Amino acid sequence: MRTSFALGLAVAATLLAGCSSDPKVEWANDRGGVISYDGSSEVRALKKADEICGWAGRKARVSSLNPDLAKVTYDCVE
Predict the structure, then answer these.
(1) Which residues contact 10 (CB under 8 A, 6 or more apart)?
(2) Counting CB atoms within 10 angstroms of each CB, which of 14, 20, 63, 74 has the fewest?
(3) Where does the source fall among the domains of life (predicted)?
(4) pTM of the entire structure?
């Protein structure tokens, strides 16, 4: 399942490489958050989530991905 998710992200990154808008942080703290990526890409949203979790010395783990709403919900894990 992890491989198919990574493959999906790679395909999304390829298809959306020309997008220029930054992902928007809807809310976030040291435990997780929600990022919308309308006009951006899932990959850029996940990089933003990792950046936010990195402030607490953690990594982002996707808890849900909704391509229809262009939103990523994530948890910060050790």
Answers:
(1) none
(2) 20
(3) Bacteria
(4) 0.71
